[in-house]
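Researcher: Here's a chain I'd like modeled. Treat it as a single chain, no partners, no ligands.
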Amino acid sequence: MKLAVIDLGTNTCNLLIAEINQQQYTLLYQGKVGVKLGKGGIKKKMLMPEAFERATQALKSHLEIISQFAVDQVVTIATSAVRDAANKSDFETHLLRETGLQLETITGDREAELIFKGVKLAFENLPNRTLVMDIGGGSNEFIEIQNNQILHKESFPLGMARVLEQRLVSDPIKPSEAKAIESWFDTGMQSLWKQLDGKQVSQLIGCSGAFDTVADLIDGTAPGTKIRQQQIIELADFNRITDKVIFSTKAQRDRMTGMEPLRVEMIVPALILIRLVIQKLDIRNIIQTDFALREGILFEWIYD
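Model: Modeled as a single isolated chain. C-alpha cells:
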C-alpha cells in the first residue's frame, strides 16, 4: 500500500510518500513548502488569516503531488502553532472544507513519540544515553534513549518562530542579542538540564530541519538534493559553520551554498540552541538524520 504523510509544522509543511510491503518500505517522494503559520500571531496564540491561506495552498500543492502516486491513505498531522492556537478549531474546519483533509493536531508528547519512532526507522540500534533533538518553528523536542526505548521525552514551546516573534534580532545579530536568546533557551529548558544532570550523553541525534541545513552547509550541497538517513557531523565542522553563520547578514546567508531560503532567518537561533545543548551537556558525537515525525507515522504503519 502507498501512504502519504503531511506534517503541517509551524514553519514548513512537509510531505512524505512511501510504499509499504509488509515490513519493507520504499520512499517515493519527500518535499516541503513554506507556510510560516506563526507569522504575526504566534505570540498571541492566534493563526492569522494569511496563515489560513498559506496552509490551504501548501496542502493543495501537496495533494497535486499525491494524486500522481495512486496513494491509498493520507495522514495529515499538525503540531505546535496549531495546537497552541485559540482558533485551532476554525483552522481545522477551514482546511477540511478547502482541501478535504482531516487535520490531526497532536500534543507535544505525541510529537516527541513520533520523532523517536522516526529515528528508530533510521537507526537499527541506539546507544544508551542517546539524546534526540528536533528543532521546530513552534516547539523543540528532546528524547533521552536507553535500551532502544524512551527514558524521558519533553517538548518545549521554544521554537524558532517564537524567538523571532518575541525578540528583536538585528541584521546581523548583535552579540548581546545572541546572548539573550541563549539565556532564554537556557532558562526555558531547566527541566532538561535537571533530567540529564550527571549523565554523559553518548551522542546527539539531530532530526531534520535545522540539522539538515547544517549538513547541507558542511557538504556544500543544494537543499533537498541529498537524502541522509544518518550522517556524522564532526564537532569541528559544526563549530566552523556556526561561527560563519550566526553573525552573518541575511544577504550573506542567502548566498551560502546549502542554505535553504526557508531557513535564512531561523537558522541563527537554531544554531544558538544547538551550540547551547552541546556545551551544557559536553556532547562530542553528533549525527544528523532526515528522519523525524513523518517517518514516525510511517514506522507505526509498518510495525504497529
